[in-house]
Specification:
The complex is a heterodimer of chains A (234) and B (209).
Chain A lengths: L1 E6 L2 E6 L4 H7 L23 E4 L2 E4 L10 E3 L3 H17 L14 H8 L23 E3 L9 H5 L10 E4 L6 E4 L1 H4 L4 H10 L5 E3 L12 H4 L2 H10 L1
Parallel strand pairs in A: 1-5
Antiparallel strand pairs in A: 1-2, 3-4, 3-5, 6-9, 7-8
Chain B lengths: L20 H8 L2 E7 L5 H7 L12 E5 L12 E7 L2 E3 H12 L1 E7 L1 H5 L11 H10 L21 E6 L9 E3 L6 H12 L15
Parallel strand pairs in B: 1-2, 1-3, 3-5, 5-7
Antiparallel strand pairs in B: 4-6
Helix pairs in contact in B: 2-6
The chains are: A alpha+beta (234), B alpha/beta (209).
């Protein structure tokens, strides 16, 4: 059913039930995201896509559009809120971009550029979360995990549909775990999918890293904003 | 380290030859800029030099009082803009940064180490005692048969237990991330500030690595 909503005061005609992040992108409005993957169920974990819908703060990825919905994206308050969320993720982990294999193809880093982060307003915590290297083809740099749960929900054992990744513990004790037995059954393309789906440099494919020269890396060829908006047009 | 005493004289306390009065007068009207290096690798200072001939275009407005080229310990007069490379890893860094803060109108953190600690901050994940033991006692490059010694002397600045970003020690006004940031990025910031424009690092040139 065709409906009309407004995004930052501009009328937008779309279909009822479409995801707000997608509708905004179709109309050239970029809403930063980290956990959201187009076509996959909403996770709503990172809140980086926070907007106002009919006056209330909410994560845009969790909103199916409805008739008459009034959406605010581009306000100073919301932009600063999204920036603060990104900054908190940089503070809570060890995001040492200069030494990270994922640099240049890291969604957290690329989104940091888009929201204009230059430093975190929160104290850097330097958490200690030991890396996990037991699996044959995959290892986890746990201090880079942002707990988006993409891997937990979307990377599953192909025979049993069991989850391969899980988050253990709560609060500051939380850390990402991998089931070594199931991980060793992952075919190479699924290992690559897991590494690619990770929006930071936490899930790393063994033997792979620093492959693309600086200047030719994923988000240097096309920014995360251009990708988010461009993919909608094709 | 930074104060002249009985056994040492700091370069900034040495008598300097007076400049030609005309040159001094021309300089007095310029915006004074300085850069110091704390716990970093000097790469950001090299990026400063990477401004290359573009710097010439700014020299009508700017004079540079201290960089690695004029390696004095302390600036001799107040500066409008101070760039800081490196984070805080010892007591001398703290003293140098505080003194720089008091003598600069605007302070800018340049590079990952100044902004959040950078590579030196990787030692924040281990105890300082473990770090020193690994470096001096259990080091694979330790001299065979020598008595393992962790250096300690009044002339060696005491190391801090953690590495801190500059803004956790003094107020920093602006931040240029990067490891190191490009010379062109530093140039843009300097050019904006001396021409009265707002600090702005658009996504196209903002880099964390």
């Amino acid at each position: 059913m065709s409906i009309q909503i407004t995004i930052d005061g501009q009328p937008v005609v779309t279909e009822a039930g479409e995801n707000l992040v997608d509708v905004a992108a179709q109309n050239s409005v970029y809403i930063p995201t980290l956990c959201y993957l187009k076509g996959k169920p909403c996770l709503g974990t990172c809140r980086v896509c926070s907007v106002r819908v009919n006056g209330h703060f909410t994560a845009a990825c969790s909103v199916p559009v409805t008739e008459g919905m009034q959406v605010e994206v581009d306000t100073a308050e919301l932009a600063d809120m999204r920036k603060a969320l990104i900054e908190s993720l940089f503070s809570e982990g060890n995001h040492n971009c200069p030494s990270c294999e994922k640099s240049g193809r890291c969604e957290l880093q690329a989104t940091g550029y888009e929201v204009g982060m230059v430093v975190s307003r929160f104290p850097y915590r330097f958490p200690l979360r030991p890396r996990e290297v037991a699996a044959d083809h995959i290892w986890l740099e746990r201090d880079r995990c942002i707990f988006c749960q993409r891997c937990v929900e979307f990377i599953r054992d192909r025979q049993t549909d069991q989850k391969i990744f899980a988050i253990k513990g709560r609060g500051t004790a939380a850390q990402i775990e991998v089931n070594t037995e199931l991980a060793n059954r992952m075919p190479p393309e699924q290992v690559r999918e897991a590494a690619d789906i990770c929006p930071v440099g936490c899930i790393i494919e063994k033997g792979v890293g620093f492959n693309d020269p600086i200047g030719r890396r994923k988000f240097e060829l096309q920014s995360v904003r251009e990708r988010a908006l461009g993919e909608e047009e094709s | 380290m930074s104060k002249s005493g009985k056994n040492q004289t700091c370069s900034h306390d040495l008598p300097a030859t007076q400049l030609d009065p005309a040159l001094q007068a021309a300089r007095d009207n310029k915006i004074k800029v300085a850069m110091i290096g704390l716990c970093g690798c000097w790469g950001c200072t090299l990026s400063m030099l990477d401004m290359d001939e573009a710097l010439l275009g700014l020299l009508d407005k700017v004079t540079i009082l201290r960089t690695s080229l004029t390696d004095i310990k302390r600036i001799r007069e107040r500066c409008a803009i101070g760039f800081v490379e490196g984070g805080i890893a010892n007591e001398e860094n703290i003293e140098t940064l505080k003194e720089f803060r008091e003598n600069c109108d605007i302070l800018i953190s340049v590079g990952a180490c100044a902004v959040w600690g950078g590579v030196p901050a990787m030692r924040n994940e281990v105890e300082l005692s473990d770090c020193l033991r690994e470096a001096y006692v259990d080091s694979v490059t330790a001299v065979a048969d020598a008595i393992p010694t962790i250096p300690y002397h009044e002339d060696i600045p005491r190391i801090t237990t953690r590495v801190y970003p500059c803004h956790e020690v003094v107020k920093m006004d602006y931040f240029i991330p990067g490891c190191p940031p490009d010379g062109a990025t530093i140039l843009k910031v300097l050019d904006d500030l001396i021409n009265g424009r707002e600090f702005d690092l658009p996504a196209s040139i903002n880099r964390y690595d």
